[in-house]
Amino acid sequence: MEFTIENEKVTASFTSKGAEIISLKSKDSDIEYIWQADPNFWFGHAPVLFPFIGQSKNKQYEYDNKIYPMTNHGFARTHEFKVTKQSKDEITFRLCDSEETMNLYPFHFSFEINYRVVESTLAVTFYVKNTDDQKTLYYSLGAHPAFNVPIAEGTSFEDYALHFSPRKKRNLLKLKDLKDFLIDLDATEGASTDEALPLQYDLFTQGLFAFETKGATTCTIQSTKTAHCVEISYENMPYLCVWSPTPKKAPFICIEPWGGIPDVTTASGRLEEKLAVQKLAALGEATTGFKITVK
Could you tell me which residues are beta bridge partners of residue 211? Predict the structure, then answer.
């Protein structure tokens, strides 16, 4: 089922399956900023990644001496969320554990996603609650929004660049290969974001890459040939993934704030030892999120 919120500047639409953003349009320009899921390139719009991000080693993990299967990016993106709140400019979706999820992920949880439009910004807030009064909850949480590039007519993919704030040197994480999609920590290198990163398709020949982003971070997709751009900002998501499918020259790019990463090549497979996994004590709660501003 689809839902829409709006204000005087923008409209935003979502589907209850995965609580996914499927549209973000400017009322002034009528520009659609979210990728419209052409299956010839990629079927997603902006999946929410929970309770895992990316690939698990051997497509499984171990917890409490038991092996569980886990699909790429977790299961939330394929589950129906319930709408718990809706107004003209705001909507909240919720997913809770069920018999189905417990077979894949033996934890009790409540996961809410709130979307709100303010001026030309879509604010996304994630709420995770451990509803178990005894066990620690282990999870990873991220976003996978895909943005149309080029943004404006008369421009091309290569006319755009990524601009980071603050401008500084950051660690850059890379995949080992395109077979297992695991992070190779030995390939981590320093990458300067003092200057803009021009978009070129050959950036993605080795798949995704991710910057470590501690503290307040902004990434803007923009071009000198148009005033229209997209800004992604957040304060407490420690990684930012950048991806576009290869070898296809797809007219979009994913800018993905992540609270966690895919498994690394040396992962033990034990959930408690997963690199960058989030932990919530019994009955604990956590809040994070990001904002998308369109111009």
Answer: 172, 240
